[in-house]
Design goal:
The complex is a heterodimer of chains A (319) and B (644). Chain A contains seven helices and 13 strands. Chain A is of the alpha+beta class. Chain B has 644 residues and is mainly alpha-helical. The two termini of chain B are 13 Å apart. The chains are: A alpha+beta (319), B mainly alpha (644).
Chain lengths: 319, 644
């Protein structure tokens, strides 16, 4: 279902794989139950119906028939799919609930109004880094996701890989995912969190381990030094303005209350899955963020044309 | 001091002089005096129904505006903040200000008639319940009209509802309004419980009560237990916001999840409270048109109670994704799957009633019988969300929106529409137009399903709830357009019921006492009923007093024309809780301004609290105390003082 990136009627990861057959089973049971009841209702009404209020007294009132049999047989039949679902639910829950003990990678994901902070942990402090809104994972290994609430409650959901878990301030929730197939999987916030709840998406990029390692190595790099005059002027502006909230590692822009921009150009989307990361969109986002994502915490910048092109010249080096 | 009335009431038959005496005692004064002072359950019931329908219309308009916004991707009709207030106000309106009050309205109107009594047990409390409902609805809508409507959904999760993230007055209006409304729900519930157990007609033992009584009684018992939880939650939220307490503030040792527990331990039983009485309407109305008694009365009555008891143990299924331990989740998952069983009892009882009866097709029948299917659709989608792993995918998508609308529209609005067609002749003395009724039903039915059946798929395709817009290319465009079109068709269908009522009030056919040849006591009196309901109080010997001659299987016969006269004062009979043996004469209060005065005092109190204007709060407390004193002042007529 390429046409529906958030659909969960197809799965590409261990966790979603386990849930999917149960989902289909309950869907099929539900549809069959509805059809049977609709048929019973239709036939029951049509069988001996009289039309018209005027005649109501002409239809005699009477008891009769074994009504309780309907209830007992109905309940017995209903109990079968219910019991199957109950047992299957417990089995599936046991499989998908617990975080894996052998996680190859541990991420700390924090939900913020309205973006996702992603921290890659490592035993080596030098290999810990932070990025935002685009999560790369290696395929075929379990990834543990520790979820934190940055402000209000959000919910972390990558339908093709894993069900939802809320990010709640004051507690650490655990989720995990394991991608079977490489691909780019959309995720979204699923708990109402304010104005821009609708634009709080992210992407999980599952790639073969060697590609993932290459990406990780690139992410560990600091930002490259500017090489041209516009880039140098752009860096100054970025440090002076963007640096109040954002970080660009290797420069004086060092704040951490907004997405890390060190490798912003390596990400396909900006503003948390709101628009594709094209030069035009990037310029619009920097200059007039409130039009792209009203009430987001990114203020409009009111840069002159020259300033904006300088900033873009620099930001485009942050690959 | 209260003195017992040891008089033995006389038994007799109706006469002109008797009716004139009763009319003098029971009739509400004309004009403004009667408007503000009436304690007649029929007037109060109609007020509840009219007010709730006005709010249904408002909530419906809010829904339509949202459906225009969502008809196409990237809609720009509404800003995010406007959308968020609209969807929150829509939820608040439909769930709190329509779904429950409409059932209270029908129950208020019908209960004493169904029970063969002359009024609710506490008529002034009844009036008070209505006034507080009206005042709290006005209070919350005042916030909305000033741009301070609720903006965090009806569920109102913290911390988004806390002052840090929500600095406006939106949450204060909502929090105080909900505490205010809780007073109405609580007094109404207490009144229903006492009415059911103490004022049934002699002989109407507990196994002869109509199922509507079982439904509202069960819902009321649940409300008494759970409304305190939500009132407390909203009160604590207000303290957190305005006085810096930290009940929900994790930075200072509070717990955001505490809100969710307090809210859903109320919220889930509440869902049953707003469907069980409506299921009771179907259980009572459907058999009339099937020309036979309800199949499995005892099982249906017990399943009503069982549903509620299970209903107390499933609230965590709203919180499956909050990171609670798996063992706890599996308990609530099991309970949520098991609750299907009592619901299935009702479904098979209704189906059997249709199969073993001879259905007469009327508009009321169509609404009641179609409800069975809508109930099942809403039920099976609920069963899907009961499975924890499946719910981790389904929750907070449009699948759940579809589910809850099948529950609330299917099991509340459709039975209520049926109830309008069924009981309007009793309320007004005039029939609704059956031909227009068919249009009404089919347009509403087709529109509703067109809007909400495809929405299940929207959810399975991953569309999150509570989004003010969505992107192209997510696979949701066509489905959303269909839903928007369907919602307008559905709205047109609902509109027709108002048209029909308006037409009928102007020139409807006369109904007569019992147009449907129905079996229960409300059809034994005139349409509309006189202020005293029954000239002589009936004595009941079966579940179907008006069908006894034809069913012929009851050993004793009910007495409708000869019974207790009780025309010495404004009186009705008190009977024992289980067997309904008469054991005391109940003196009923005359019309009184105390309920409306108390409501005015409380309204000023809540405005004062909202503004934190302590002078106003002080004045309001004095007014409230004075109104209570006036209410409670012992009256000779009620035998609360020694007679002169």
């Amino acid at each position: 279902m390429k046409s529906a990136p958030l659909a969960f009627l197809d799965a590409a990861g261990t966790r979603a794989d386990t849930i999917l057959p149960l989902t289909w089973f309950t869907v099929i049971v539900s549809v069959v139950v509805c059809l049977v009841i609709a048929l019973l209702l239709w036939v029951g009404v049509r069988r001996r119906q009289t039309s018209g209020v005027a005649d109501i007294r002409s239809v005699p009132v009477q008891r009769g028939g074994d009504g309780l049999r309907w209830i007992s047989v109905g309940l017995l039949i209903s109990a079968v799919p219910l019991l199957i679902t109950l047992v299957w639910t417990m089995v599936a829950l046991a499989k998908v609930a617990g975080p894996p003990r052998d996680a190859a990678l541990t991420l700390d994901v924090t939900g913020h109004q309205w973006w996702w902070e992603v921290r890659y942990n490592s035993a080596l402090p030098a290999e810990v880094f932070t990025t935002a809104n685009e999560i790369h994972i290696p395929t075929g290994v379990p990834v543990l996701v520790r979820l934190h609430g940055g402000d209000v409650i959000h919910s972390f959901w990558v339908p093709k890989l894993s069900g939802k878990t809320d990010t709640i301030p004051g507690q650490t929730n655990l989720s995990w995912m394991q991608a079977r197939l490489p691909g780019r999987y959309r995720g979204a916030c699923n708990e109402f969190c304010g104005s821009q709840h609708a634009n709080m998406a992210f992407e999980v990029v599952a790639e073969p381990p060697e590609d993932y390692e290459r990406w990780r190595a690139a992410q560990l790099e600091a930002a490259p030094d500017p090489t041209s005059q516009p880039q140098i002027r752009g860096l100054a502006l970025v440090e002076y303005r963007c640096g109040l909230c954002h970080q660009v590692r290797g420069t004086r822009a060092g704040a951490v209350s907004a997405p890390d921009l060190t490798h912003v150009m390596s990400r396909q989307m900006i503003a948390s899955g709101t628009v594709p990361n094209t030069p035009g969109n990037l310029a619009a986002w920097i200059q007039n963020a409130q039009a792209v994502k009203p009430n987001s915490l990114m203020p409009n910048q009111y840069l002159s044309g020259d300033q904006l092109s300088d900033v873009l010249a620099y930001v485009e080096t942050l690959k | 001091m209260r003195v017992a009335d040891y008089r033995t009431p006389s038994v007799g038959i109706d006469s002109v002089g008797h009716e004139a005496r009763l009319l003098r005692l029971w009739e509400t004064a004309p004009g403004l005096k009667g408007f503000f002072g009436s304690v007649d359950h029929k007037q109060i019931g109609i007020r509840y129904i009219v007010t709730a329908f006005v709010l249904l219309a408002l909530g419906g308009i809010e829904a339509l505006v949202m459906r225009v916004q969502l008809a196409t991707p990237g809609g720009t009709l509404l800003t995010p903040e406007q959308y968020n207030q609209l969807f929150s106000t829509h939820g608040m309106t439909m769930i709190f200000l329509y779904a429950s009050p409409i059932l209270s309205g029908f129950s208020n109107y019908l209960w004493p008639l169904l029970l063969g009594s002359r009024d609710m047990a506490f008529p002034r409390l009844n009036a008070f319940g209505y006034w507080v409902y009206l005042a709290s609805a006005a209070f919350m809508y005042a916030g909305f009209l000033m741009g301070n409507g609720p903006n965090d959904g009806w569920f109102n999760y913290v911390p988004y509802a806390s002052r840090d993230y929500n600095p406006g007055l939106n949450q204060d209006f909502y929090a105080l309004g909900m505490v205010f409304l809780g007073i109405s729900t609580t007094v109404g519930a207490a009144n229903f419980i006492v009415t059911a157990f103490r004022t049934r007609a002699p002989g109407m033992s507990i196994n002869r009560m109509p199922i509507l009584i079982w439904g509202t009684l069960t819902a009321s018992a649940a409300n008494l237990v759970v409304v305190p939880a939500v009132s407390l939650a909203f009160f604590l939220l207000w303290l957190d916001r305005q006085f810096g307490t930290h009940f929900f503030d994790n930075a200072h040792g509070g717990q955001p999840l505490l809100w969710q527990h307090l809210f859903w331990i109320f919220g889930h039983p509440w869902v049953y409270a707003i469907v069980l009485p409506a299921m009771g309407m179907v259980s009572d109305g459907l058999p009339v048109f099937c020309r036979r008694p309800l199949v499995g009365y005892s099982l249906v009555a017990l399943s009503t109670v069982a549903t509620m008891i299970f209903g107390f143990g499933v609230w965590v299924h709203h919180m499956f994704a909050t990171g609670l331990p798996g063992l706890g989740l599996s308990f609530f998952s099991g309970a949520s799957i098991a609750i299907v069983i009592p619901s299935a009892v009702a479904v098979f009882a209704w189906l059997a009633t249709i199969w073993l009866g001879r259905p007469v097709i009327t508009t009321a029948f169509l609404f009641f019988s179609s409800m069975i299917l809508l109930f099942v659709i809403g039920g099976v989608s609920g069963f899907m969300t009961a499975s924890v792993p499946v719910d981790w995918q389904l929750t907070d998508t449009y699948f759940v929106v579809a589910h809850l609308h099948y529950v609330l529209i299917g099991i509340n609005v459709f039975p209520v529409m049926g109830a309008v067609y069924f009981w309007f002749p009793k309320l007004s003395g005039r029939m609704l137009d059956e031909k227009l009724g068919r249009w009404n039903f089919w347009i509403a039915f087709v529109g509703f399903n067109l809007a909400f059946l495809p929405m299940h798929l929207t959810g399975l395709l991953g569309m999150p709830r509570r989004v003010y817009t969505y992107h192209e290319g997510m696979g949701w465009d066509t489905l959303n357009m269909i839903t928007s079109v369907g919602s307008f068709v559905f709205a047109a269908g609902v509109l027709l019921v108002f048209v029909n009522v308006w037409k009928s009030l102007k020139a409807g056919a006369r109904a007569g006492d019992n147009p449907w040849d129905a079996p229960t006591l409300e059809w034994a009196t005139s349409s509309p009923p006189p202020p005293y309901n029954f000239a002589v109080l009936p004595t009941v010997a079966s579940r179907h007093p008006l069908w006894e001659d034809r069913l012929g299987d009851e050993p004793a016969l009910s007495s409708l024309n000869k019974g207790l006269l009780l025309d010495q004062g404004k009186e009705t009979i008190g009977t024992s809780a289980l067997d309904a043996e008469p054991d005391m004469i109940l003196e009923m209060p005359a019309d009184s301004y105390a309920p409306v005065l108390l409501t005015v005092g409380l309204s000023i109190l809540f405005v004062g609290l909202l503004c934190k204007a302590w002078m106003i709060v002080g004045v309001a407390i004095v007014m409230t105390a004075a109104a209570l004193l006036f209410w409670m002042w012992p009256r000779r007529q009620l035998l609360e003082r020694e007679p002169v």
